[in-house]
Amino acid sequence: xxxxxxxxxxxxxxxxxxxxxxDLRHRYPFxxxxxxxxxxxxxxxxxxxxxxxxxxxxxxxxxxxxLPPDGAQLLLSRVRxxxxxxxxxxxxxxxxxxxxxxxAYDDRAGVTAKxxxxxxxxxxxxxxxxxxxxxxxxxxxxxxxLARIEMALISTESQTAMLGDQAILFQAGERVAISQSRKYIxxxxxxxxxxxxxxxxEWITDTENQFAxxxxxxxxxxxx
Length: 224
Hints:
The protein is of the alpha/beta class. The chain is built from five helices and 13 strands.
């Protein structure tokens, strides 16, 4: 891929980002690596010297599904607004049988439950609050209207956690939303892309049609 002149990784962790940039420069001396520290939910300030260069955005994995519809459209619109953008390569998790989804998000081994519950461990470690690690139960719930699975922690009893000087009260059965993951079909992603002035150029899936890599191309004209 010698035709690629510059790689601009964007990440919120400055230490990891710059360490990765150093490694990439060592392994690919022909490639200019210009890291940008930032959150992809906010506008990215690309290097000024690349303003007129043709660009391809790359958003792998399935992080788009973590965003609500308006947030996903905003992200696509911001990338579409880059000067001289030629394409946006996007990873999306596809709609699948609900049994398959719940095997992944509410597995019998409790791996996902431990992963989601770890936020309480981090809060207790980083901010020194007093969340009871055994006072919450994990729940995964399918939201059909939004085509997404929602992960939450449910307070198993009435309890109070201290965050500094602030007391946080939880009622028994109170649901605390932690994460979400939307699943796409081609039509829904096409509508989302069109609203952000993209069109689907290529749609590539695995053999079981569970995940897609989509190449979006700029669509001219006003939003429909």
